[in-house]
Design a protein that fits this description.
This is HNH nuclease domain-containing protein. Pfam families: HNH_3 (PF13392). The chain is α+β, with helices and mostly antiparallel strands. About 20% of the residues lie in helices and about 25% in strands. It has two helices and six strands; from the N terminus they run αββββαββ. The chain has a two-stranded antiparallel sheet. Strands 3-4 form a two-stranded antiparallel ribbon. α1 (about 1-10) packs across α2.
Length: about 90
């Protein structure tokens, strides 16, 4: 149920670019240029902010493994198209 509602919200706040097929985020944008969304897993949980691409990956594909983050293979920071999302390893210092 949660994933379906999140999918609907993501579709509502995005627009498909007919040339690139990117789902461009129309909601809040962070200083880094990535989309940002507030989500709640269930009515009893607290709100949390996620990047729009992280929310999209979680809603359409599945959980993100520990030590990994979501990036866009198309290079568009506002893209949330699940087909353009990929998992990357968090760099270590």
């Amino acid at each position: 149920m949660y994933r379906v509602r999140l999918q609907e919200k993501l579709r509502t706040y995005s627009q498909v670019d007919p040339v690139t097929n990117c789902w461009e985020w129309l909601g809040q944008v962070s200083n880094s240029g990535h989309g940002r969304i507030t989500v709640r897993d269930n009515p009893q949980s607290i709100n949390k902010k996620l990047t729009a691409e992280t929310a999209s990956y979680t809603a359409f594909i599945g959980d993100i493994p520990d030590g990994m983050f979501v990036g866009q293979s198309c290079g568009n920071r506002l893209c949330i198209n699940p087909d353009h999302l990929c998992i990357k390893k968090i760099p270590t210092r």
